[in-house]
Design brief:
Helices cover 37% and strands 20% of the residues. It contains seven helices and twelve strands. The protein has helices at 2-8, 15-48, 64-93, 199-208, 218-228, 267-275, 298-310, and strands at 100-107, 110-114, 120-122, 124-128, 133-139, 144-148, 153-157, 163-167, 173-179, 191-197, 254-256, 262-264. It binds heme C (HEC) and copper (II) ion (CU). The site of copper (II) ion has 7 residues, from loops.
């Protein structure tokens, strides 16, 4: 009956899919069998015992064995379905501890995903195949609902609180997800692609951070990093002094260093200052800047350099 399952239901993209489909098909076939088991005798009895003038119908109104049978059997079936259902629900509700956690933010009308290392992506969820992922979701505005049909997972997203689900994707490739809670004009456009990648491809994507950076001019991308990577807590961009030197007008200028030497602020110096801040410490400041070695990707460094350059 696999043809029927694939005609009725989407691709089985996760471990849940098999469990859920099995139960779905079991209830479907149970309903088919019950339909005929009830309707065929009903039609037959209505015809067999129809009114015929002069016919004497046998007069039996009670059969205890039969009544016990048709009360107890359906009861057992319903209780069985209940336990099967609650077992599946518990499995879905409590994820394994080692899952990768991805933060999902829904807002009118897009999806934002954030990975454990800070990688962000919009409308694009990348997950490695055969590894469990745990999605922690919230909304910035109204009710949304994250639904990935191929994975058979779906859950409401509520502003002001977190909801979550987990799954283990099993089929490499592109899947779709959608918002399943009407959220206004753009609701039907609120879709994200779910890429199930091989571990290699996934690692590669994590290392490069996806292509979000390509959608911004370098200076703008740099400004986003300044804000998101925490540079803003120590560096201003308007010339005022903070815990670190302001970035305004530093490009091209001769910077005085601790110890008396001086250096011209160029691309290489900026890069070094981010990755090895202690190598050359600016005069008048403490060497408190943390190293960003391994935390900034090439595209982010390039963006930051372009941003600092633009602050003349
Ligand atoms: C905890 C505070 C702090 C944070 C956070 C911080 N910095 Fe710094 N930064 C400093 C201090 C202090 C200096 C000056 C001393 C030195 O050179 O190490 C400095 C110096 C620099 C310089 C050299 C500036 C000049 O005038 O020559 C650059 C470039 C720089 N930081 C980039 C960054 C970037 C990019 C980030 C974010 C990814 C960042 N910093 C985050 C404190 C910080
Ligand atoms: Cu929505």
């Amino acid at each position: 009956m696999d043809w029927l399952r694939s005609a009725l239901l989407p691709l089985q993209g996760s471990e849940f899919a098999k469990e859920i489909d099995l139960m779905y098909m079991a209830i479907f076939w149970l309903s088919v069998v019950m339909f005929f088991a009830l309707m065929v005798p009903m039609v037959w009895f209505s015809w067999r015992y129809r009114y015929v003038p002069g016919r004497v119908t046998p007069h039996q109104t009670h059969n205890t064995a039969l009544e016990v049978f048709w009360s107890v059997v359906p009861l057992l079936i319903c209780v069985g379905l209940f336990f099967w259902g609650i077992w599946g629900y518990m499995h879905f509700a409590v994820g394994p501890g080692e899952s990768m956690e991805i933060q999902v933010t829904a807002k009118k009308w897009l999806w934002q995903f954030e990975f454990p290392d800070g990688t962000r992506a919009v409308n694009e969820l990348h997950v490695p195949v055969n590894k469990s992922v745990h999605l922690v979701m919230t909304s910035e505005d109204v009710l949304h609902d994250f639904f990935i049909p191929d994975m058979r997972v779906k859950r409401d997203i509520v502003p002001g609180r977190y909801t979550e689900f987990w799954f283990t994707p099993t089929v490499v490739g592109e899947h779709t997800s959608t918002c399943a809670e009407y959220c206004g004009k753009g609701h039907s456009d609120m879709r994200a692609k779910v890429f199930v990648d091989t571990q290699e491809k996934f690692d590669d994507w994590m290392a490069t951070g996806g292509d979000e950076w390509m959608k911004h001019p370098p200076e703008e991308w740099g400004k986003i990093q300044w804000d998101q990577k925490g540079c803003a807590t120590c560096h201003t961009i308007d010339g005022s002094k903070s815990k670190g030197p302001s970035w305004k007008g530093i490009f091209g200028k001769a910077e005085k260093l601790k110890g008396g030497a001086s250096v011209t602020v160029d691309e290489n110096y900026l890069r070094e200052s981010m990755l090895q801040p202690q190598a050359k410490v600016v005069d008048g400041f403490e060497p408190i800047m943390p190293t960003f070695q391994g935390l900034l990707r090439e595209n982010e460094i390039r963006g930051l350099v372009a941003f600092i350059k633009s602050l003349q």
